[in-house]
Amino acid sequence: MVTDTAAAERMVERLLAVKWDDDAAFAQQQSRARLAREFLRRTAQWALTVGAQEGWPFGDLAGAVDPEVAVDPALLARLAPDPSSADPFPVLPDMAAAIVRWAALGDLPRQRFPQLDDPYEPMLALFDRGGGYARGPGSIELGFIEFPIRSVAERAALEPVPIDAAALDALDREG
Q1: Which of 32, 69, 168, 175 is most exposed, with the fewest beta carbons within 10 Å of its own?
Q2: pTM score of the predicted model
């Protein structure tokens, strides 16, 4: 069993540090759409590789890589949505748990599947660019853009797109 508790704790802190900002999300809607696309591409490739198509794109990739990965429930409880918050797009509990469980795998995914990129980094970057998302029927709703999910095969077949800060900022400037 692999559990990198320190990495899981760092991920919880990163998720708790997200600042939801509708103005930033609106100003960065093009880059957020690119990040949603790249999240779907990466998670589709992982889902096909590790046999985790059920529940994609919001399934348990970490459990498919190592079914014994464990995260302290008290750590995950820190990410429970605040009912007093007016934020319409919090990190949904199952997505937060999936991201933290992935972090708890430490370097195992990179060691076993070096050809695949981190599946959750695009979603974390999307959060860092102003806000979260909601699930619509067959789509990811980004507040100002509805992004279609499509099929695992369609998304897995896409070419990767750059998601470094400079490329994302340029995309938003072109807007």
Answers
A1: 175
A2: 0.93
